[in-house]
Specification:
heterotrimer; A mainly alpha; B alpha/beta; C mainly alpha; A: ABC transporter involved in vitamin B12 uptake, BtuC; two-stranded antiparallel sheet; 11 helices; 2 strands; about 75% helix; about 5% strand; C: two-stranded antiparallel ribbon; 4 strands; ABC_transp_permease (chain C); cell membrane (chain C)
């Protein structure tokens, strides 16, 4: 019983990490069909933002709170530049955006290596987040509770923005049907830039948060990327709801597989489950019904 | 789908047949030696007629392993500079040809072959992962050349063409276990990355534990680079072992030690013995997460000996005061000096002469005197258990009585008899 | 020039010229070491031809060709290891790396690989069959575009992780230290040259197959599916089947390339087949020109050569160069080198635009 509860909690915490990494992707992928392979490097940029801020500020707790919004801006700014310089030209070639952004990711990774050095750097965890909380018989580290809370906050914020603000309405309109939105007078170009800013900014936030549990090195982002993409694919295009459910489900699945077999086989198991799942629902968990043929 | 035999399809058959026939013809015309026949060994092209002689330095300068291997490259360069300053080898100055292994075994094999056949180097220094060594081994055997490999590894290997200057298992893992047993550890939990070294190490640990009455409470592997440890750390905690034996590699250590501290485990109640964490790695993990934990190596920057003082000073003078020295760097540094000493003893750069002269060649190294064992091409090494201190350095808390003879196949340990078949 | 090459005489001239270079000039001019490198690059080129078919002509961006390359390579490596073991220790002997890993008995799934015929059949059939099954599962449900790309990439990641966990397949170290290739000593330079000829022959054959597929009605259908899958479906064709064939042929090419790669390079390990190596296969194809026939071959050879040449002098610069090549070529020259002539003639041409839409 304890084990099961532990698994569930682990699933939730793994899921919230996946969700943080995938939320921004889900936005950009869903709306623009852009497969941003540099998303992982944006996460890495968030990690290094946390590192730099901590070097400047000193106190780990204060620096974390400052780094979160700065990470959002850094990630968002990188996203804006990428969108304006490259992606805008590649509109009708979604697969090509995948390769272009992979190239961008390579360059960013090497740049991080040249600027910060290849070895991992250390970002200290604030005193308040050290240690764990005994919950239902297992110990859950406070850092993971923080990440879960942050994930909930991020999802709520994105959902509220999409639902209740004029900008959010425009984003949803373009996601639903780009051509129709344009005929209604929405500048899809500006909406795209805004979406990319938010999506990439979320990657930066994820990066800052992930320094609490993982290492900060040039290859940090890569390790989250493929899993994040699987969440987006399984969740369904552009559906925040789908991303949430898929992230938690994949997290739990991974935790359960890991208990009964090895961590390596767990990865393979998750992949098999996703292929089988796509057999049942090729468009992902939640489909956005549109009238376009694509 | 309608796919009738069109003229194109007939053309396909013709084109295929033509290419295949051409290739087959040439391939059979070019057949060489068959299995069992003696082959003509490739002639060595090492040029020793001039004032200089070339050696290769083959390390990953790009890719995931660059973190570690660039430090080894620096140590090799330092040793070569020292040998040159002291008059060179056989009166010849050494010239380094540096190559990038790019963290990929196939690239290591390719570059090794280039160094031997195109650059005609007398010996190659480098390699880090076992995968890179295994990839290079046939290249060195087929071309009859020499590799000096400077990293601790899982043992169970001996090649005429490789000199292993890092620790084999009986110089690192077994002393670490001896130390734990001495301090009263009766149960262990094993955590490692999923590849060859941790698996071999854990096989040895299990056999040792069985023979010495130590209970192994769990054995977990994560994929290389994994940062997800909540399940494993919780299992470790509930198992409540006396100590953890950690064979994790690289970035995984960061996540592991953070999670470990977060669930409230400390070095005082459940110490972690690590075999892949040296001075270089402590910074990235964060000293506050790992202070007081143990590591098993043969060398630390803090080892007190005149040779080490000189080594550390020379290294910092060359590469900067903020740099640290670590075990693999020291082993790489030793390897260059050992090669130079062997060549001097042999009076020749020829591979066969160096192999013949190797037995008993010694070097007064930073870790203490190391001596080459001519039978298995490993060196004697002093085992040291270190504790990680608040300044990020490791300090020796225990060391073996003098250098330990290398025993890569663990032939001297009865309990290890079932582990591996000797070659 | 281009028009001439489209004729039958032109085709044969092209092949003759390629054969002359590969079988005549290269062995004459290159040292044994460089010839071995070229042989290795030719294997990458074989993979590239398959990707050109699936991606350039079929619009399926397969980011997981490392899986099929790896399958072919591991199957061949298993044969070489068992053959070595038998030569030293008689039938049923355990390969050296297994002894070291403490495996005393040959696992059952290894046993058939002592037979050369079985091995070759497995190299041809297993990856192809796997691709057909996977392709049917994916394409029948109309999973396409970016979804397919991401799935194929995840597949490469999962496959590499799976292999790392298999101690009976060498784990992280992979399989290496092969002595004989179907009875021939691999250390002998003469036999190394033989392997080069085999690689060159395989490349020519693969190009011939791709050429015929392009010119057949199937080739037209494939392009039609790429450009307007719905319309093809409305015309009564099953688009999924068309895609499966191209995907399976690409898998077959990759598998054969892997099988030839192993004796040439002397090692296969998970590091050569994971996510990043799989994407790197794409780079050469993109640079050479994804939709053209010879483009992927030239691109793959050029990238491999540049990597060897550049990384010798500037290891970190090469990573930048790789990244920038991806960005520049795909953003500015989507048709690759092969399209330079037509781009220069009329800029922008309609034709390159259509091809770029893939």
């Amino acid at each position: 019983m304890d084990l099961l509860v532990g698994q569930l909690l682990t699933g939730l915490s793994t899921g919230s990490i996946l969700l943080l990494a995938a939320l921004g992707l889900s936005l950009t992928f869903g709306q623009m069909g852009v497969v941003n392979m540099a998303h992982g490097e944006f996460i890495m940029a968030g990690c290094y933002t946390a590192y730099v801020v901590q070097q400047v500020v000193g106190d780990a707790g204060v620096s974390l709170l400052i780094a979160l919004p700065i990470g959002f801006l850094v990630g968002g700014a990188m996203g804006l530049v990428l969108e304006a310089l490259l992606l805008r030209r590649l509109y009708h070639r979604p697969l090509d955006t995948l390769l272009v952004t992979f190239g961008v990711g390579l360059v960013l990774q090497q740049a991080a290596r040249d600027v910060f050095g290849a070895p991992a750097v250390n970002v200290s965890v604030p005193e308040a987040l050290r240690g764990g909380v005994d919950l239902l018989g297992t110990t859950v580290p406070r850092t993971r509770l923080f990440i879960m809370a942050l994930a909930v906050l991020a999802v709520t914020a994105v959902a509220l923005v999409l639902r209740f603000t004029p900008a959010g309405r425009r984003i949803r309109a373009v996601t639903g049907n780009r051509d129709l939105a344009e005929t209604a007078g929405i500048s899809s170009r500006r909406v795209d830039a805004a979406t990319f800013f938010i999506g990439s900014g979320l990657a930066g936030v994820a990066g800052v948060a992930l320094t609490l549990i993982g290492s900060t090195s040039p290859t940090t982002g890569q390790s989250y990327l493929v899993d994040a993409f699987l969440v987006v694919v399984a969740g369904g295009l552009g559906r925040i709801k789908g991303a949430v459910v898929a992230a938690v489900a994949l997290g739990a699945l991974q935790a359960v597989f890991e208990t009964y077999s090895t961590a390596s086989l767990a990865k393979v198991g998750v992949f098999v489950v996703i292929v089988v799942f796509l057999q049942l629902r090729p468009q992902g968990l939640f489909t956005l019904r549109t009238r376009s043929l694509a | 789908m309608p796919l009738r035999p069109t003229p194109e399809v007939r053309g396909l058959a013709r084109a295929l047949a033509a290419s295949a026939a051409l290739a087959g013809l040439l391939a059979t015309a070019a057949c060489g030696a068959r299995a069992g026949e003696e082959t003509v060994a490739t002639e060595s092209c090492v040029d020793t007629s001039g004032d200089t002689v070339k050696v290769g330095s083959l390390n990953s300068l790009s890719g995931t392993m660059a973190i570690s291997e660039t430090t080894v490259r620096d140590a090799i360069a330092l040793a070569v500079a020292e040998v040159n300053a002291a008059g060179g080898v056989q009166g010849k100055q050494i010239e380094i040809v540096a190559e990038d292994g790019a963290s990929e075994p196939t690239v290591f094999a390719e570059k090794a072959e280039k160094l031997i056949r195109e650059d005609c180097v007398a010996a190659v220094f480098g390699g880090w992962t076992s995968a890179s060594r295994k990839a290079m081994l046939p290249v060195f055997e087929d071309n009859d050349s020499l590799l000096y490999y400077p990293v601790q590894y899982e043992g169970l290997e001996a090649s005429e063409n490789i000199f292993y200057t890092g620790a084999t298992t009986n110089q690192q893992i077994i002393p670490a276990l001896d130390y734990l047993a001495e301090t009263g550890v009766e149960s262990l939990y094993l955590v490692g990355s999923d590849y060859v070294f941790p698996r071999t190490a854990n096989a040895i640990i299990n056999a040792y534990a069985e023979a010495h009455g130590i209970e192994v409470l769990g054995e977990d592997y994560v994929t290389l680079g994994s940062t997800e440890f909540s399940t494993i750390v919780n299992q470790v905690k509930s198992a409540d072992a006396d100590a953890v034996f950690n064979t994790l590699n690289g970035d995984s250590n960061v996540a592991f030690f953070r999670e470990y501290a977060n669930v409230g485990l400390t070095a005082a109640d459940m110490p972690v013995m690590s075999v892949s964490i040296a001075e270089e790695e402590v910074g990235g993990i964060g000293v506050e997460n790992i202070e007081g934990q143990l590591a098993a190596w043969n060398y630390y920057q803090t080892v007190e000996s005149p040779a080490n003082t000189a080594f550390v000073e020379a290294f910092k003078a060359e590469y900067g005061a903020e740099r640290v020295t670590s075990d693999p760097m020291e082993a790489a540094y030793n390897s260059v000096h050992l090669w130079a000493a062997t060549v001097e003893k042999a009076g020749s750069f020829a591979v066969a002469d160096v192999q013949a002269a190797a037995d008993g060649v010694s070097f007064d190294s930073p870790e203490g005197t190391v001596v080459i064992d001519g039978d298995n091409h490993h060196v004697t090494k002093t085992a040291r258990i270190g504790e990680i201190a608040a300044d990020g350095l490791l300090y020796t808390v225990w060391e073996s009585d003098g250098p330990i003879e290398p025993d890569p196949f663990l032939e001297g340990y009865d309990w290890a008899a079932d582990l591996a078949v000797t070659e | 020039m281009n028009r001439f090459l489209q004729t039958r005489a032109g085709t044969w001239t092209g092949f003759a010229a390629a054969a002359l270079v590969l079988f005549g000039l290269a062995p004459l001019l290159l040292s044994g070491f460089r010839l071995g490198l070229l042989a290795q690059f030719l294997c990458y080129a074989v993979v590239a031809v398959g990707i050109g078919l699936a991606w350039g002509r079929g619009g399926m961006l397969t980011l997981g060709q490392g899986v099929f390359f790896g399958m072919g390579a591991y199957l061949m490596a298993m044969h070489l290891k068992t053959a070595d073991a038998e030569f030293r220790g008689g039938p049923g002997a355990v390969p050296d790396f297994m002894e070291l890993a403490g495996i005393r008995e040959l696992p059952a799934y290894w046993a058939p690989f002592s037979s050369p015929a079985f091995t070759i059949a497995a190299i041809l059939v297993l990856p192809t069959a796997f691709a057909v099954l996977l392709g049917l599962a994916v394409f029948k449900r109309r999973v396409k575009g970016a979804y397919f790309a991401i799935l194929s990439q995840a597949l490469a990641g999962a496959f590499a992780i799976l292999l790392i966990g298999q101690q009976s397949l060498g784990g992280f170290n992979g399989l290496s230290r092969f002595r004989y290739f179907f009875g021939f000593t691999l250390a002998d330079p003469v036999n190394q040259r033989m392997l080069y000829f085999i690689a060159a022959g395989v490349l020519l054959s693969v190009v011939a197959v791709a050429l015929q597929l392009r010119r057949s009605r199937y080739g037209e259908l494939l392009v039609a599916v790429r450009d307007a899958e719905e319309r093809v479906r409305f015309l009564g064709y099953d688009a999924a089947n068309v895609k499966v064939v191209a995907y399976a042929v690409a898998a077959l090419f990759a598998s054969v390339a892997g099988a030839v790669f192993v004796p040439i390079v002397g090692i296969i390990s998970p590091a050569s087949i994971g996510i990043v190596p799989s994407i790197m296969f794409i780079l050469g194809v993109a640079i050479g020109g994804r939709a053209s026939l010879v483009g992927p071959v030239v691109g793959a050879l050029a990238v491999a050569w540049a990597q060897t040449a550049l990384s010798e002098q500037f290891p970190s610069a090469w990573t930048y160069a790789q990244g920038l090549l991806f960005v520049l070529v795909i953003a500015l020259l989507p048709g690759g080198i092969a399209s330079i002539a037509s781009v220069a003639r009329r800029f922008p041409t309609k034709r390159t635009q259509v091809e770029a839409a893939a």
